[in-house]
Amino acid sequence: MSWLWCGMKLGELAILLFGVFSAVWPRRSIALYQWIMERFNWRVSPIDEFREVRTTRVLGILLVLLSLVALWLLVARRVS
């Protein structure tokens, strides 16, 4: 098993977990982003919090779906 393939698989799993995190807990995902931006001396806040939470949840679901497709393609390609 090559290191590159293992790294890609681990990366996909990390992306999948981040997507689940954003879809299930969108407010915590937004708070994480705000915390990261504060480290760079930037303050960010949503204009419409309801819309921001909804968008974060939808994009989290989309990220989960895309990472599942990518993971499936990685596994399918490795098997064949």
In words, what does this structure look like?
The chain is an all-alpha fold. It has one domain. Helices cover 84% and strands 0% of the residues. Helix 1 crosses helix 2 and helix 2 crosses helix 3. The longest helix is centred in the C-terminal third of the chain and has 31 residues. It starts with a helix and ends with a helix.
How is this structure best summarized?
This protein has 80 residues and is an all-alpha fold. It has helices at residues 3-24, 26-39, 49-79.
Uncertain segments are: none
Q: Percent range for helical residues?
A: over 70%
Largest sheet: none
> What fraction strand?
under 5%
Q: Calculate the terminal CA-CA distance, rounded to whole Å.
A: 14 Å
Apparent shape: elongated
Number of strands: 0
The total tally of domains equals 1
Question: How many helices in DSSP terms?
Answer: 3
The pLDDT mean sits at 90
- State Rg: 16 Å
* Quaternary status: single chain
Counting helices, strands and paired strands, the structural category is mainly alpha
Comma- or semicolon-separated keywords:
80 residues; elongated; single chain; mainly alpha
List the helices and strands and how they pair.
Layout: H1 3-24, H2 26-39, H3 49-79
